[in-house]
Each structure stands twice: as C-alpha cells, then as structure tokens.
Write a structure and sequence with these properties.
about 80 residues, 5-stranded mixed beta sheet, 50S ribosomal protein L38e, Signal recognition particle alu RNA binding heterodimer, srp9/1, alpha/beta
C-alpha cells in the first residue's frame, strides 16, 4: 500500500479519552458539524464530522444513548 501523506490526512481519528471527546464535541458544535451513529451488538460508534476531519469514539449503548439525547439539540444527529 502506498504511504502517501495525502492518504493519511483522510483517515478518521479515533478518540481514546473522555477529555478528547469533550473537545471534539465542542469543535463539532462550533463548526456546525454533525454526529453520525452506528450501532453494533454492545456498542455505539459515534462519528463526529467537522469541516476538516472525522473523529470516532465507541461507547456502551446506554452511555451513548444518553449523550446522543443531550447532543440532539446542539447538532445534527443521523443514525446509520
């Protein structure tokens, strides 16, 4: 596989801490971005789309549903 720097810029960035998640939520709101959700058996993947990047974060279903309810009034949320 070609290791071109332009390819690396297009890859989603996976968040690993709640602090990172809070910063990305604020950034997404400021940039009028959107949240896309993808449900699996035991987790929900949250995909935050900003103007330049896509950030992902995985949460247990109950925790994610609570966060999604809070964010629906602040940004566009789509379920996939």
């Amino acid at each position: 596989m070609k290791s071109d720097s332009s390819t690396m810029k297009k890859m989603p960035m996976e968040l690993t801490t709640k602090e990172q998640l809070e910063k990305v939520i604020q950034l997404t709101i400021e940039q009028n971005g959107e949240l896309r959700t993808k449900r699996s058996k035991d987790k929900i993947k949250l995909k935050f789309r900003t103007k330049k990047k896509l950030y992902t974060f995985k949460l247990p279903i109950k925790e994610a549903e609570s966060l999604i309810r809070d964010l629906q009034s602040k940004m566009n949320v789509k379920a996939f």
